[in-house]
Amino acid sequence: MDPRVQKMSDVLVNYSVGIRSGDWVVISTSPLGEPLADACVSAILKAGGNPSVTFRSDDVAETILSEASEEQLSFISPIGRVVYEQADATIGIIAPANTRALAGVDPVRLGIQAKASEALLETFMRRSASGELRWTGAAYPTLAGAQDAGMSLRDYEDFVYGAGLLNEPDPVAAWKQLGQGQQKLVDWLSDKREVHIAGPGTDLTVGIGGRVWINDDGQKNFPGGEVFTGPVENATEGVIQFNYPGYLQGREVTGVRLRFERGVVVEATASSEEEFLKQMLDVDEGARRLGEFAFGTNPGIQRPTKNVLFDEKIGGTLHMALGRAYPDTGGTNVSALHWDIVYNLREGAEVTVDGQIFSRDGEFTI
Questions:
Q1: Cα of 212 vs its chain's centroid, Å
Q2: Whole-prediction pTM value?
């Protein structure tokens, strides 16, 4: 086993979710993620926790989405309900064999399933915000991920582990140091009211007054490297022309352009998969509002890989999520959708906060 897998499991278990004696920890992964899952099980046992592992299959998911009746698509597994309601911690491991496995599924059927799962998502968000449920999501390098990133598997492994600061002698100390730098941004932004983004094709204002900024230092996401909040639901105005594609359910949506009025997307176009974009916006009323606004800060991620877990952390970018807000940010938007799309600030963009320049060409100026 690559020694970095063991190192990653130690960080995930003992730092990201902080397992304590007696904790019930549920690990979810595909079969390709078994090496990391096994290493996490060992680390959980050493910490005194009680691990359970569930394996998911893209083939099975495709079969259900393609063949199930609407009633069956709306069925919520009692197993999933118990996990979301009772687990002390969860570790999700992304290890795809085919990142486009669901690309051929009818978006309407995806929407039916997502809407049915909304109650589970609500439970997850509520328990996460209260601290009852500790969670993290991480990626295990696979050939599919490497191909999407345009890398060999060896280079992709180096990228994944480097983005997790696992090459550092003490990764936890490195994450805490990065978190200290991010906390300065959080503190500065905490009493501000409005963010304005100006760039090619983009003139957008986002209200943030009274909202809480969160410092993602590698705990609830791995790798971490962002500061984020929940925008004021009716205070986004203007246009944004995304210069990175949006990825969701195996689809790649390029050239996304959104126009907002009073917080709602009133016009949406795309160079590709435009119909899919519009169908996702129509999942429910909350899907047309922003649930998250964030700045990427991870110095180990400098290029897109078609995996939003990494791309949203690229230093010199921002991202915003259509749909559900995280309650701990003060956001109240409710939706079955949470779709992060990344905007590269390094291509001639300027960000001002309450009239003061905050970022120019992706470099913080405060």
A1: 18
A2: 0.91
**Residue 35, preceding bond cis, omega within 30 degrees?**
no
Residues 316 and 227 in one domain: yes
For residue 177, what pLDDT band results from cuts at 50, 70 and 90? Answer: very high
Indicate the length of the chain as a whole number.
366
Helix axes 58-67, 107-116, angle to 10 degrees: 100
Residue numbers of the domain that contains 111? 3-140
Lay out the sheet containing 251-253: strands in order across.
Answer: 214-216, 226-229, 290-296, 317-323, 338-344, 246-248, 251-253
Phi (first) and psi of residue 96, to 5 degrees: -75, 145
The candidate with the shortest Cα–Cα distance to 223, out of 327, 312, 294, is 312
DSSP string of 44-98?
A: HHHTT-EEEEEE--HHHHHHHHHH--HHHHT---HHHHHHHHH-SEEEEEE--S-
Mean pLDDT score of the chain: 95
Distance from CA of residue 107 to its chain's centroid?
Answer: 20
Same domain, 134 and 211: no
Structure tokens at 24: 């019930």
Structure tokens at 299: 């110095």
Assess if residue 163 is contained within a domain: no
Give me the sign of the Cα torsion angle 218, 141, 33, 94. Answer: positive
Examine the domain organization and report whether 259 and 311 are in the same domain: yes
CA–CA gap between residue 60 and residue 211 (Å, rounded): 40
Which of 80, 111, 140 is the last residue before a domain boundary? 140
For CA atoms 291, 296, 301, 302, the dihedral sign is positive
- Residue 304's alpha-carbon distances to 57, 283, 284, in angstroms, are 26, 27, 29
Give the N- to C-terminal CA distance of the chain in Å, as an integer: 44
Tokens linked to 261: 């009025």
SS3 323: strand
Model confidence pLDDT, tens digit, residues 16-38: 999 999 999 999 999 999 999 99
